[in-house]
Task: structure prediction
Amino acid sequence: MSTNVNTKELKEILETTPDKQNIMLVGKHGIGKSEILTEFFEKKGMKVTALFLGQMSDPGDLIGLPRLDESTGKTMFMPPYWFPTDGKPVVLFLDELNRARPEVLQTIMDLALNRKLAGRSLPEGSRLVSAVNEGEEYQLTDLDPALVSRFNIYNFRPTAAEWLLWAAEQKVDERVITFIQENPRFLDTCDKAGDETGLDKSPDRRAWKKVSDCIKDCPELKAIHKKIISGIVGAQATTAFMSSISQNRILSAKEILMNYEKHKSKIDKYMLHETAVANESIFRFLETQEISDDDKQTIAQNLALYVKGLQSPKKKEEFAHFVSIYEKGTYSQAIVFILTEAPELYTQMTNFIKNL
Result:
């Protein structure tokens, strides 16, 4: 059985694994495999080339087309468009490996073993990462054990919290972020209700970003938006999403931190799960937003007032949740903000932990 890894662990594996060793990621589509790999390696100055093997009809799509070298009378292969000719190492991302035709997989064997295609070597330092889809909905090809043995294999299981932090950094619509925080089961799941065409839609991480792009400039969602969203994430997820919006929504971190007194009465009435959503939202805001010097004092003061409200006898669990987020250390920039702009909160949380 393969090892499960989240996004943070995957990045550590990519950092630690020698470039001569190949990596295979197992997971559903739409969970961010290619985006994470591209971001990681491009930060290191390496070009990432994605090859969708399930779309290749024959090995020529991978190794290039043959031509006659008139000077030698021998057949040579023209390098494909993606092959590096400048001598710089690259990262080849072999997507949909288990949807490739058997004849294409035979070509991959030489690439995985010797870093060669049609006798042409990849530049020294190049990396090879593959991804395979899992699930009954995919038409898959059985992989040769000899090929599988050439890869270190990991089940990629990114957490909802990691996606929420990424979503905040990408300015995904707050309604989408709040919905997924409250209903993480809809981040990666299948909508079983559908027709008989085999074209049922189900939500995934990529799809929720599309939903955000469609609604981010629309303060009020109309009937047509429901149909648009249903075509992106499916009927079941859409019904739940629209219902959450129509209900009494949870305040955004910006609303709380910029004008706490205005919303205090509403915040005081929050149930535990609602406060938990607000707590996470505040840490994500402090982690991902560029806060101007003019706003720092206002945010620090309102944060202090918010946390003071959590320290009332009836909110003890809510404050414990806030402290637990701080203790995890996931939001490093938020921690820096608290230490530098609201140090009294650090003292309060430290005392709370000591008294447990």
Remarks:
- The beta strands are 3-5, 22-27, 47-52, 66-69, 74-77, 90-95, 116-117, 120-121, 127-133, 151-156.
- Residues 191-198 have pLDDT under 50 and may be disordered.
